[in-house]
Write a structure and sequence with these properties.
By secondary structure, the chain is α/β, with parallel strands linked by helices. 33% of the residues lie in helices and 18% in strands.
């Protein structure tokens, strides 16, 4: 890859994007940002890093994107609507920001004769439910959980062949996509669009499937924030974090500094491909809420409500082996350390 020209970071003023920009600047890399400063992510105008060209514009705006794409040597595509949102009324916005925005960006890169490294912020949501094994039928893919089962407190998915209990296993990048909410469907679409673009242009594509990212600068008090931010905002406001289901949902919580480092590696080194970006540690949502309460102080304990959302999945924990082997990335921030910091870290 040529060293001429800056690296473009879409959404570079946002939660993850701003950490990526810091990592690139620390290496002496020239950076250009395009960010719409969407009110869903920015209640106030975010700070702009020194020495960085910032284009305030939407990735759906052909003129703004064409300007931002000129002469770049690599692209880190972070701009997106995230989270499950409020309800199906959000569907057009998710498709517009994530799918159409990516299409407009890729068209601008094609017109600019871009042939460099493209790094896409994808997500573990593309897998749907995680990997499971049945003692009788081996590796299976359970069907989406029914409202009747969830309402009765039957949260664990069962074997689709014999209805036996299942053992959660690690998800690797070879699992087929099975999106189970609108956001997930748009992330799969982003991956497919970028794959087509890379094949037709000869560009080099890295799709990073983030697991549950948390850390400083998460947006607060918004339905589009991650569960860690929602819990942290509640605790800071003197309210017990409300934990859905029974709190036993298993996830991989990965610190934003590790995610940023993975992007920097993917932009400047490492093999193309699809990679889980995860800590390699499984923890439950209930554990995370309890750790935040302990770290913040004040005597709050999580409120396990039994409520549920149909778009949620029960367990999804990643295999981080491919990223370690082929990308040269391994997370360094451990769960307890990261949660202690996050309990007092500044939010947006």
């Amino acid at each position: 890859m040529s060293d001429a020209g800056p690296i473009l970071v879409t959404g570079g003023l946002g939660f993850i994007g701003s950490h990526i920009v810091e990592g690139l600047l620390a290496q002496g890399t020239a950076v250009r940002i395009i960010d719409s400063v969407h009110p869903g992510a920015h209640a106030t105008s975010p700070p702009r890093p020194d020495g960085v060209e910032v284009v305030i514009g939407d990735v759906r705006d052909p003129d703004a994107v064409a300007s931002a794409a000129k002469g770049v040597r690599a692209v880190c595509h972070q701009a997106a609507m995230v989270g499950l949102g409020v309800d199906l009324g959000d569907l057009p916005e998710y498709v517009s920001h994530n799918a159409l925005g990516t299409a407009v960006l890729l068209r601008a890169l094609a017109h600019a004769h871009f042939r460099g490294r493209l790094v896409l912020a994808s997500s573990m949501v593309v897998y749907g439910e995680g990997a499971y094994a049945c003692a009788i039928h081996g590796r299976v893919r359970p069907a989406p959980r029914s409202p009747a089962d969830l309402g009765a407190g039957r949260f664990e998915p069962l074997c689709p062949a014999c209805a036996a209990s299942l053992q959660p296993e690690l998800v690797d990048e070879g699992e087929p996509p099975d999106p189970r909410n609108v956001y997930a469907a748009t992330k799969v679409h982003q991956e497919h669009l970028c794959t087509v673009f890379a094949r037709e242009t000869g560009s080099s594509l890295v799709s990073l499937r983030y697991h549950n990212v948390y850390g400083p600068r998460m947006p607060r008090d918004t339905p589009y924030a991650g569960v860690a931010s929602i819990f942290r905002s509640a605790i800071e406001g003197g309210r017990a974090p409300r934990v859905f289901e029974d709190g036993g949902q298993r996830r991989d919580f990965v610190h934003v500094r590790d995610v940023a480092r993975a992007n920097v590696v993917a932009l400047t080194d490492g093999a193309p491909g699809v990679f889980n970006i995860a800590s390699g540690e499984a923890h439950t949502v209930g554990e995370m809420a309890a750790e935040l309460c302990r770290s913040f102080g004040g005597g709050l304990v999580p409120d396990v409500t039994g409520e549920f959302r149909l778009g949620d999945v029960r367990h999804i924990v990643a295999s981080a082996e491919r990223a370690r082997r082929d990308l040269g990335f391994a997370a360094s921030v451990r769960f307890a350390e990261g949660m202690r910091e996050f309990a007092h870290a500044p939010l947006r």
